[in-house]
Amino acid sequence: LHGLRHMCSGRAALPRRALWVLAFCTALGLLLSWSSNRLLHWLAFPSHTQVRTQWSRQLPFPAVTLCNNNPLRFPRLSKGDLYYAGHWLGLLLPNRTARPLLTELLRGDEARFRWFAKLADFRLFLPPRHYEGISADFMDRLGHQLEDMLLSCKYRGELCGPHNFSAVFTKYGKCYMFNSGEEGRPLLTTVKGGTGNGLEIMLDIQQDEYLPIWGEAEETTFEAGVKVQIHSQSEPPFVQELGFGVAPGFQTFVATQEQRVS
Fold it and tell me: Is Transport set as a keyword in this record (predicted)?
């Protein structure tokens, strides 16, 4: 700014004042140009990402959680189960009578209709004093059992079975986690991707045991199939939020890639 004194000085010669004006404008232009460049760079909120690729001979195989879309098997309901949980399941009205629309749906199967009509007749029924309620034991007893659903299981070409899965309970009821890494279950690893180097399973979803789908209800589903989530052993399964659906009658391939952010 001291150049302003020389630019406005009446005692300085005109050529000298012109040189000072030129120098001042040049310096001011450079200052504004650099400042505007830095300001735009700051407003862009720049970030620096460093990616490092590390090769490994083997990687831990992720945990795979499977859930049947149907939480409870309809034919396994007892009279006590229907008495206490029928309204929660959307099968009974608050006064413990069968929903009319459900009755209409069951009329197509005469044997099933007679069975349910007898089950829902509480006229001479004495409710048990102590009932387990809607608990983990209740879901475990009435949920789909992996021994009945699992038709085939292979991991890296070797046979596996229900003993390789751990039971977990979610909003879908009783689910099963492969490679949970829990005590007594060594963490499985894989050396490469591709078909034949991971988990291959075939399931029977037991759709004939699904709860009747009669309308909107929180505990009944309009979908048949299984919900699957692939996750690490360090995080619990959030199948409802992060899982994907697998429809019956189709073969589904799933590929995963691990990314670690630090």
Answer: yes
In the CATH scheme, what is the homologous superfamily, with its name and number, of domain 59-73+143-256? Acid-sensing ion channels like domains (2.60.470.10)
The secondary structure of 160-213 as a DSSP string is --GGGEEEEEETTEEEEEES---TTSPPPEES--STTSSEEEEE---GGGSPP-
Q: Strand (E) positions, 32-123? A: 59-60, 63-68
pLDDT tens per residue, range 107-142? 888 888 899 999 999 988 888 777 767 788 889 999
- Looking at residue 159, what is its pLDDT? 94
Q: Which of 124, 109, 126, 125 is nearest to 75 (CA)?
A: 109
Three-state secondary structure call for residue 31: helix
Per-residue model confidence as pLDDT tens digits over 31-75: 899 999 888 888 888 888 887 777 777 888 999 999 999 989 999
Rounded CA separation 242/257 (Å):
16
Cα–Cα distance measured from residue 239 to residue 237, given in angstroms and rounded to the nearest whole number: 6
Residue given tokens 């505007």 in the structure block = 36
Name the residue among 241, 182, 239 with its Cα closest to residue 67. Answer: 239
C-alpha 249, offset from chain centre: 22
What three-state secondary structure class fits 103? Answer: helix
Helix (H, G, I), strand (E, B) or coil at 59: strand
33 and 193 Cβ atoms separated by less than 8 Å: no
- How remote is the C-alpha of 10 from its chain's centroid? 80
